[in-house]
Design a protein that fits this description.
Domain UDENN: 1-245
Mean pLDDT: 82
InterPro entries: ABL9/DENND6_dom, FAM45, Tripartite_DENN
CATH topology of the largest domain: Beta-Lactamase
Subcellular location: Late endosome
Distance between the termini: 45 Å
Family: Belongs to the DENND10 family.
Radius of gyration: 19 Å
CATH class of the largest domain: Alpha Beta
Largest sheet: 5 strands, antiparallel
Strand order of the largest sheet: 2-1-5-4-3
Strand content: 15-25%
Number of domains: 2
Helix content: 25-40%
Organism: Ooceraea biroi
Oligomer: single chain
Order of helices and strands: EEHEEEHHEEHHHHEHE
CATH architecture of the largest domain: 2-Layer Sandwich
Length: 245
């Protein structure tokens, strides 16, 4: 098994019983800009809305994956109501990192010790796999590029857009900008896995922005990408507060 060297960092964010959100642990390190965008995306600060269980987004040239978990009385996390496990990586593979983050989250619920998470993280980084007795097993080789392509659903995409799928394909072929709006983040992230499958001979993922909020730092990044229309033309948006889109 090949080591998973695309992993960049692992972090834990906790929300305690008082409603305070704290970034409690990271390895090896994360930047301030990374922290800011993750805190905004994970939605742990919301009182009445439950955070999405698993989401992914892009920050610069890297990808991050957030797995949120509820804490129950049987878990080893006293005074913690919810927590989010965050993985930064170089590659876009939601299915792979969803499985890994779920294994790590279950271990953290059981033990409440970041050192246990660190052991599993280093095992994946150096060996490409980790195994636990009760919380599942992760093998990086199970999620290669062929497996990722097979997990997409082109047929469902064509059924949804019908003849307009031709316009989507043509836009990808000609490297045009595509903006996708959806009121459901879950459905949006589901569909973006399929868009690159329409153009397998080209790395559409390099030009993919799966979740953009209308805030200054993310808008600035989009303006920077517009300076080179051939490199980054595929924008995926999710924002239900600005109908001007």
């Amino acid at each position: 098994m090949a080591p998973l060297t695309d992993l960049l960092s692992c972090s834990i964010i906790e929300k305690d019983c008082n409603g305070d959100v704290l970034w409690t642990w990271s390895y090896p390190t994360v930047t301030k800009s990374q922290r800011d965008v993750v805190i905004r995306k994970c939605n742990l600060k919301l009182e009445h809305n439950s955070p999405h269980v698993f989401v992914c987004a892009r920050h610069g040239h890297d990808w991050f994956y957030i797995h949120c978990s509820e804490v129950f009385d049987s878990d080893k996390l006293l005074k913690v109501k919810k927590f989010a496990l965050v993985l930064f990586a170089k590659d876009f593979n939601p299915q792979k990192y969803e499985v890994l983050s779920r294994v790590l989250s279950k271990m953290y619920c059981k033990t409440g010790k970041p050192t246990e998470i660190l052991q599993l993280y280093l095992s994946v980084f150096t060996k490409g796999s980790c195994s636990t007795q009760e919380n599942g097993t992760f093998v990086s080789d199970d999620f290669n590029c062929h497996h990722f392509a097979a997990s997409t659903n082109v047929r469902e995409l064509i059924k949804t857009f019908e003849l307009e799928t031709i316009l989507i394909y043509t836009a990808l072929l000609l490297k045009k900008r595509i903006i996708v709006y959806h009121h459901s983040l879950e459905q949006l992230l589901k569909y973006i896995r399929t868009f690159p499958a329409l153009m397998r001979h080209r790395r559409v993922i390099d030009n993919l922005f799966p979740w953009i909020d209308l805030v200054n730092d993310e808008l600035i990044e989009l303006k920077v990408t517009e300076t080179d229309i051939y490199l980054r033309k595929h924008y995926i948006f999710n924002n239900n507060n600005n109908m001007q889109l």
